[in-house]
Amino acid sequence: MEYPLHIEIQRVYLGLVVALVCLYLLRHYAFTLNRLYGRQRFPYLDVGSADWPRVTVLVPAHNEEIVLPRILDALLMVDYPRDRLKVLVIDDRSSDRTGALLDLYVDQHPDRIAAYHRREGAAGKAAALADAMALVDTDIVLVFDADYMPARGLVKQLVAPFFDPEVGAVMGRVVPINAGHNLLTRLLDLERAGGYQVDQQARMNLDLVPQYGGTVGGIRWRALESVGGWNIRSLAEDTDATFRLLLGGWKTVYQNRSECYEEVPETWPERMRQVVRWARGHNQALLKYFWPLLFSRRVSRRVKFDGLMLLGIYVLSPLLVVAWATALSLWHLGINEPGLVIILAVSTYAVLGNFATFFEVAAATHLDRTRERVRLLPFLSFGFLVTALAVTHGAFVQLAAASPHRRGFWHRTARRQQP
Amino acid sequence: MSVPVMTVLFFALLIGWFGLAFLPALRELKHGTDARALPVASDGRTTPSYFADRFRRVLTARLAEPAAEVRATGRTLTRAVEGEERFVVLPARHDRLEPDGDGALDALVMAVGDLEIPEGLALLREVYVEGRLRTEPEALLRATLAEGGIELGAGTVSLRWLHSARDLEIGPGCRLYGRASAVTSMHVAVGTLFEKLHAHRIVFGPSTESGSTPERPEQRVIGRDDLGAAAEEAGGRVRFAGDLELPEHCRFVGDLVVTGRLTVGTNTRIVGSVKARGLVLGDDVEIDGALVSSADLVTGRRCRIHGPLLAEGDVVVGAGCRVGSQTHPSTFRAARIDVHAGTVVYGTVWTLEGGGEVHA
């Protein structure tokens, strides 16, 4: 049966979206099966004795008076050699007591904590990190957001991979500390488990592209510098760094057992803002690195494939929302062949499991040896739906604005002191 | 049945069908039985003496009173409290330790002085010795801590962990499952099977040192340009695409990453760290930094690795090699390790799955 051109275009579009969705589904299944049955790689886990290099821990802080003492106390307790660890807190134009609290700590620990009170320059975390590098004299730089709580052995665990000269960045696992606060935090706890315990570790196992997440991680400065340093124009300096390092022939590694507590958003508007921010940064990286990655001669085909899939993860939601609308409009136009119903069903199913499929999350709870929290799995449909709509909205706003040179600013989740 | 009724029934069934999945979800949401944050590793579980340190803390608190009594009376104390672990506290001078039956003793043993474990005796619970521990051949230990050093007789088996606050002498043919650690030095005899070892200085088998350093030809300095077009330099390291053979008697300055296999010729020194997907080192090779292989690794004789040696595959270490140094301890980690006599590791040796063995 022949259709008019605009109908054909819509049918082709639907076919392409479904193909894309199926690729992502296969990828999620492959990752989950790898985590359950495949060879697990933790190549840097047990490095306990070593001539540890000098390290700087950067703590970017913008109005962090509630949580700053907690992270500084935690960093003072880590088991890294004292004379080789320097904590540099970037007080970036805070208007609360962050600066005063920081000075108090510097007075008490002048040889271990340093302050950088930033009063001018471009706004945003990436710009703050870039400026702070002028004060850093070590090659290994770890970054912790101020609301994180590093455990005693975490710094050593995050530094150990840098003994490998191929490693340009390291990422640890983030664990929500306020998991039990409400339904949202419990869903985010599940989502994080799926994302780290399964998705990131599977990419590590398969030697693909684990992602540097901007916190609970580290960077080899001369590696990042060789590919352009911190990109202050990026909305997601972490994703940006991951792909520039990849294109430069450096590896990002994931350390699943290097765990650190964080606070996750406790309200839906906060969560939506967070995910929109991530999506915008990710999409910016997609536009910038899609073609360079596709034609890179340093990157193998399978790594390229995974990298491109990773870059496109936040584009899938708007593509699917448009596909739903297309399928519905075709249905109302009388193009109601069964294939379209299947397309709609498959795409709907897929979008509800876009970021981390149910299978991934269930496997993650199994690997974490928890039993009851997996019961909340059906609620994740709501979480993913909200995420999909927020990401779609963000993508369209981004398209409408289309300003790659917009000014950066500080995005942060509201802090609540956790016990 | 009318169409509206069927429609209502259909939707009721549909909602019920989907709703079923939400019943346990709603229950969990209401009761929050598993709502706490996941535990994160807060202490150094990779610290080799982790179990021993914990055991010492618990035991010295729990047995402080019985130990004081034994010191005062000089008599062996045996207690079997119902519902609790049976324990035996031995004085400094004590009779030979006897089994319950079947050659095994099912009690926690504490000795306030030295302790000698008779041949073939199996100690099914933990052992804590304030003095020096010596086992006769074929003893079996579950978890052992000795403050004054340990000597294991030939064929002794340690099931979980073993820690000496001084030195550790391991006889031939011992099997050490789990961790074995010593604060000062460890000597591991030929034929020993091990999993995880840690000491300031670990010597495998008899020493092969002749006392004098052999004459070595002068090394020729090579750089990226000598490696050909497949080599590129960025960020302070050279990255070589493909397999690479470094010639003998050379010196390469800088970090080196090889995307294929790397073969390093005899008496070549790399002043930096090395990573490859499979490595073969000739005799007398020296690596100033770390040596990392994402596959297998074979070293020749008398190689010196100053930084960590990390391999995702199996490793065979030639006789007389050194990993780490007195001043800079290191970590040697691989899936399986076969180490030849005369090799010395300063720091930690961890095997992942295949264990390790000492060869003559």
Protein architecture, described:
The complex is a heterodimer of chains A (419) and B (360). Chain A is built from 14 helices and 8 strands. By secondary structure, chain A is of the alpha/beta class. An 8-stranded mixed sheet of chain A has the order 3-2-1-4-7-6-8-5, with helices on both faces. In chain A, helix 2 links the parallel strand 1 (55-61) and strand 2. Chain A is globular and about 80 Å long. Chain A starts with a helix and ends in an 18-residue tail after the last helix. The model of chain A has no long low-confidence stretch (mean pLDDT 87). With 360 residues, chain B is mainly beta. Chain B has helices spanning 3-31, 50-62, 64-73, and strands at residues 77-79, 87-90, 104-105, 108-111, 115-117, 122-129, 133-135, 140-146, 150-152, 157-164, 168-170, 175-182, 185-188, 193-204, 220-222, 231-234, 237-240, 244-246, 250-253, 255-258, 262-264, 269-271, 274-276, 279-281, 286-287, 291-293, 297-298, 304-305, 309-311, 314-317, 322-323, 330-340, 344-359. Chain B has a 33-stranded mixed sheet that branches. Chain B is flat, with a radius of gyration of 29 Å. The interface between A and B is large, with 56 and 57 residues.
Number of helices of chain B: 3
Q: Given the C-alpha coordinates, what overall shape of chain B results? A: flat
Biggest chain pair interface: A-B, 56 and 57 residues
Q: Numbering strands along the chain, what is their spatial order in the largest sheet of chain A?
A: 3-2-1-4-7-6-8-5
* Overall geometric form of chain A: globular
Distance between the termini of chain B: 88 Å
Class based on secondary structure composition and strand pairing of chain B? mainly beta
Kindly state the number of beta strands of chain B: 33
What percent of the residues of chain A sit in helical stretches (DSSP H or I)?
Answer: 40-55%
Uncertain segments of chain A are none
Task: Give helix and strand order of chain A, one letter per element, not per position.
Answer: HEHEHEHEEHEHEHHEHHHHHH
Largest sheet of chain B: 33 strands, mixed
What is the strand content of chain B? 35-45%
| Major sheet details of chain A | 8 strands, mixed
Radius of gyration of chain B: 29 Å
Average pLDDT taken over every residue of chain A = 87
Which percent range fits the helix content of chain B?
10-25%
- Alpha-carbon distance between the two ends of chain A: 65 Å
